[in-house]
């Protein structure tokens, strides 16, 4: 049993990147699928697929992105945790967007967005993690 499924997903991505695997598998949920879609849209992952084997549970197959043999994703940090939720409004979120080579993922009332998308939409929310 996993107590924090998003942290588990991020750890699987971090471990696969460290070992330079081309893909990794993650147990599926709609929220994880939304996170994978956002990471593909932001250019951190090549693609993702929802795999539904016959009698086994479904999973997401995440394809990692590399440039000249080096992983695009250098690191990932979980910000909002199950023990301490971190919320930021638009003004606080702007302070964390100074670095162009990283993406802050925010859960807003309009769904998952990157920090720049949330700021453009003038939304705040729970800051889930930062990827660089």
In round numbers, the mean pLDDT is: 93
Number of strands: 10
In helices, the fraction of residues equals 25-40%
The first-level CATH class is given as Alpha Beta
* Shape label: globular
| N- to C-terminal distance | 28 Å
Relative strand content: 25-35%
Annotated CATH topology: Ribosomal Protein S8, Chain: A, domain 1
Please provide a written account of the structure.
The protein has 132 residues and is α+β, with helices and mostly antiparallel strands. The chain has a single domain (5-131), classed as Ribosomal Protein S8, Chain: A, domain 1 (2-Layer Sandwich), CATH 3.30.1370. The chain is 29% helix and 33% strand. The chain has helices spanning 5-18, 30-41, 90-95, 115-120; strands spanning 23-27, 45-51, 59-64, 66-67, 70-71, 76-78, 87-88, 103-108, 111-114, 125-131. The strands form 3 sheets. Strands 6, 7, 8, 9 and 10 form a 5-stranded antiparallel sheet that branches. A 3-stranded antiparallel sheet has the order 1-3-2, with helices on one face. A two-stranded antiparallel sheet has the order 4-5. Strand 2 (45-51) and strand 3 (59-64) form a beta hairpin. It is globular, with a radius of gyration of 15 Å. The two termini are 28 Å apart. The model has no long low-confidence stretch (mean pLDDT 93).
């Amino acid at each position: 049993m996993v107590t924090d499924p998003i942290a588990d997903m991020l750890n699987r991505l971090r471990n696969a990147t460290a070992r330079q695997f081309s893909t990794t598998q993650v147990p599926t949920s709609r929220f994880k699928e939304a996170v994978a879609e956002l990471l593909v849209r932001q250019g951190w992952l090549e693609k993702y697929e929802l795999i539904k084997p016959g009698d086994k549970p479904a999973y997401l197959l995440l394809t990692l992105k590399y440039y000249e043999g080096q992983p695009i994703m250098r690191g990932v940090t979980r910000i909002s945790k199950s023990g301490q939720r971190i919320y930021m409004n638009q003004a606080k979120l702007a302070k964390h967007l100074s670095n162009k080579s990283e993406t802050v993922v925010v859960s807003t009332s309009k769904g998952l967005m990157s920090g720049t998308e949330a700021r453009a939409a003038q939304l705040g929310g729970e800051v889930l993690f930062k990827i660089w």
